[in-house]
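Sharing in case it's useful to others searching the archive later.

Someone asked me privately for the predicted structure of Vacuolar protein sorting-associated protein 51 homolog, so I'm posting the question and my answer publicly. Question first, with the sequence:
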Amino acid sequence: MAEGVPPMDEKAKRTRDLLASFYSPDASAALGVGGGAGVSPRRIASPDSINSPFFDPEVYMSILVQKLNMEGLLQKHVEMAAEIKNLDTDLQMLVYENYNKFINATETIKRMKNNIVGMETNMEQLLVKITSVQSKSDLVNTSLFEKREHIEKLHRTRNLLRKVQLIYDLPTRLAKCIKVEAYADAVRYFIGAKPIFEAYGDSSFQDCKRASEEAIDLVIKNLQAKIYLDSEPIEARAEAVVLLKQLNFPVGLLHGLPIYTCFSPLVDNLKTKLLEKLEDYLLKFQDEYKDTGVSACNATESSDIGQLPDTVSVGDISKIIRAYLIIFPDSEKRLIELVQKLFNRRYGIIQQRIKERMTPADLLNMMRAIWEDVNVMDEILAEAALPAFSLEAARSIVQQYISTSFSYLLDEITDALGKSQQTQKEVVEECPYQNTLEASKKTIIQGSLDLLLDFRQLLDDNLELLAKLTDLIVDWVQEGFQGFFEKLNEQFLVLCGRGYIANPDSCQVDAVQMDKVQAGLVLVLAQLSVFIEQSAIPTITEEIAASFSGGGTRAYEHGPPFVPGEICRIFHSAGERFLLLYINMRTQKISVLLKKRFITPNWMKHKEPREVHMFVDLLLQELEAVGMEVKQILPQGLVRRHRHSDSLGSTTSSRSNPTREDKLTRTNTQRARSQFLESHLAKLFEQKMEIFTKVQHTQESVLSTIIKFCLKSLQEFVRLQTFNRSGFQQIHLDAEYLKNTLKEFVDDEAAIDFLLKEVVGAAHERCLDPIPLEAPILDRLISIKLSKSKEQSQTSP
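And my answer, the predicted structure tokens:
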């Protein structure tokens, strides 16, 4: 295949070859078979090639039968039938197209033939007319030739007389210019007449030359005097130096002239003063910014933001630089340094105000004002390369603005979460954690969308400086969101007392102490992580895809700047970690209460139980507090309650035992042994129950897990003690009471019953005389406690 021809697929190539073979008189040449001399066509195309002129159907069919099964042959048949049909369609369309072209060509030839008829006659008439016009024009030129020559001669004489008159009027004109101090016009007139003085000044125009030189000497003296006057503007003094140079009075040649002996130091003094004035403008600008920088940041007129102070303007500076360049064209290095210093200071002002937070409109106004001044200065001093310098400065400014905006958003979220701890200590709100969660959600989603709108203003603005940074801005925004959510996760760890995880190499740990962290705040962080994973990231991803697609200036090895899947994975893991941390914190607090309950009394001397112990009330109060926190923050889940059933084989409760009457007649020792054996035998036939399942972000799941952990801790504390009969009966009474009360908190009643049975069973094993309370006494004590709790709940506000 020839170079530059794109490769075709097999079908297109075959169609082209078949059409070429159909229209070509030499089929082998059309198919490209006989292209090379000395190469056998048989070597190029095999007999089984269907596109070859040497195609053998029998060989082709034998090969297909060997290679394909019946299904493959049918499929091949369908493909070939479709290809034949397509080829016929292509041939038919080609015939139609050729026919249409033939008809169009015939009609075009017909129209051309009709248009040509009569054209020769018109051309002959046109030629006759052109010949007649040309002959008459020659007659007119011949008759007016002498008069035209005379007019041209008079015109040349008039121009010469006008120049002579200007030479004679030159002294008078110079005197008028000196009188009105129009020295630039005087110098221009004298320079224009100088060639004539040099040619005819010693003969015809001797007096005019002498008078003009006297007048120009007076002009030179006046220009020199203007240079010496400090009261003259710097631009006028610079103009005087330029006019003196135009009169061919260079500095090096003026030392020998008596009236110009001081001209060289005068020029040097002017150069120094120009530089001092430029530096003075820069110092004024710097001092006024230091004095008015704070008030300028709070300016209500956004149009004034970014302008130079009133006493300094780029127009003044540009005039000074223009004069400096005219007088000293070889001294640009110092000017470039001063101009770059000026704009570097102005860009530094923007960077300083970005730290104090500013709107995108203010940023655009400041950058637009500076860019306009850059264009003005670039016309005067292009060697300073101010556009390239401004592009680098704008790159740094926009990147800083985007980074600072994300930092402020992170601070707002941190403040919203930090206020919850102050609110709990200072003011008692009805739903503090719910308000904190909603405020944090709103701050995250609305703050992110507001940032996207602000950044979009930078892209939508028609500022030429930012148009060159479009791809970079897109990448910076995406990188900013990636880094923002990573830092937000680290901030969550700091707030929950695990800040050392985010910075393990740091010598100083800024993390909050675990005992100072509120458990409710940890649960808020857990639910906030779920919100970020499920709602915030998808919404932000859609907005980025809609408004900030493109970019791609990052290196390939660094990967995409914004990876939503990675952020979702981080916050999914953080949500589970915070949820488990909340459960552990609440469980540890309740475990302290349980530990005090079992360590304080002497269980071997425990008295006969007369009521449910007060620690049960404290335990329920703690669980109610947990329930209030959980209901503020977590949503409700699908309630799936496991009801207690006698089929579980429990024989621990005396009320569910059918042989209770027989046991009452036994001796205490026989009863204890019997119940001990029955409890162990019941475990063999009980249904296997999964107690600790994966925690979900729902109210029921979290409460159930905390209660399960607490009951498991209660079982372990029971195993560490030794009980007498009364102590065992007290544990039995408390467990039976908890069976009824804990059902209000959990969605898995069967698991709670199972764990409470384990607690009673552990107390039974650690008791020296494990005789439970009789059923009537147990029921009566529980009823009394329930009635007291009901009365307290009715009387309490």
